[in-house]
Structure to design on (96 residues):
């Protein structure tokens, strides 16, 4: 389980590490490719909860929710991987 984020510490680290322009770029990246998906997931959980309370069939909504969770996860993993420095391939080290 992820630990709680210390926002003050996190903000200080970001300010020390990235320029305002870089921080804006990261914020736009997260907004465009993560925040919307997570918001949709939250809304779908509310919809599924209401449907359950009303005794409605939830199969389609749950399938859509699962797809949105998968998409959000893929976006987050892709962003994380793309932001990390590339690790040298084993054959790259032998050539160095």
């Amino acid at each position: 389980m992820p630990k709680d984020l210390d926002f003050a510490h996190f903000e200080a680290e970001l300010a020390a590490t990235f320029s305002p322009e870089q921080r804006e770029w990261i914020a736009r990246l997260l907004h465009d490719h993560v925040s919307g998906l997570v918001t949709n997931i939250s809304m779908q959980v509310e919809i599924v909860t209401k449907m359950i309370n009303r005794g409605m069939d939830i199969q389609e909504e749950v399938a859509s929710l699962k797809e949105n969770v998968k998409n959000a996860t893929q976006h987050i993993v892709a962003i994380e991987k793309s932001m990390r420095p590339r690790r040298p391939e084993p054959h790259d080290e032998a050539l160095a």
